[in-house]
Amino acid sequence: YTQWGPDGAGSFLDDEKHGIPFIEKARALGIKTICVHKGLPFGKQSYEHSTCRDIGVVAKRYPDMTFMIYHSGFDMGRSEGPFDPAKADAGVDALVKSLIDNGVKPNSNVYAELGSTWRFLMRDLTQGAHVWGKLLKYVGQDNVMWGTDCIWYGSPQDQIQAFRAFQISDEFQTKHGYPKLTKELKAKIFGFNAAKIYGVDVPTQRKRAATDALAREKQAYVEERDPSFATYGPKTRRDFFALRREQGGRP
């Protein structure tokens, strides 16, 4: 959380006093992946350090390290449109500009994560199209990772369904060079890109999952479906008022 530095003032990853020693210590310990919260600023607490100005700098300086950018620099207080370097002091554009300025190419050592970001953007699909498009274009189709922050919000099923149905328009694809969200690309975002970073052996895990307890439950349901479509509670106006009277309420 670069917004909260050792002295409470925040710091950048390329800061020679705090950031660089932190990265060097991680390398010395054999830790090659650094996850950093960027965007979703914590109020007035060192706002500038929540931006992504430093990401391209350290990614270029340490090509052997991997930097995972949680929330992709997204700031709810800023409107996301096509990439504009003249307005790239914060938000996703700041991440894009930092990568471009430092020659960090797509699909290299910077990954963009979407925790909370998509949850807010799926309310405004025009902004959502620009954020997805920019990240996939500049961070890379192999380096954009699914995230929901569901620990704060509960089940992420609405986010999953919204992204499955979502598409970047043909107009935006042509005008801004955004990719089409194919089934294959969405599968990479949903899990395959993260599997690479976290060292998950997908074929092995699929084989295991095919015979685990959940798979057995699913197969049992397929073989003998017995759903209950019973509707509980009052079904008519009369039933409703009768229930209210039983509970001591007024009709």
Structural commentary:
The radius of gyration is 23 Å and the shape is globular. The protein is of the alpha/beta class and 251 residues long. The longest helix is centred in the C-terminal third of the chain and has 16 residues, at 183-198. Helix 2 packs parallel to helix 3. The chain has 12 helices and 4 strands. Strands 1-2-3-4 form a 4-stranded parallel sheet. Strand 1, helix 2 (55-61) and strand 2 (66-70) form a beta-alpha-beta unit. The protein is 45% helix and 6% strand.
Q: Which series of helices and strands comes N to C?
A: HEHEHEHHEHHHHHHH
Structural class per helix/strand content? Answer: alpha/beta
Poorly predicted residue ranges: none
Compute the average pLDDT.
93
Work out the radius of gyration.
23 Å
* Annotation, overall tally of beta strands: 4
Write down the oligomeric state.
single chain
- Estimate percent helicity: 40-55%
> How far is the N terminus from the C terminus?
55 Å
Coarse shape: globular
Widest sheet: strand ordering: 1-2-3-4
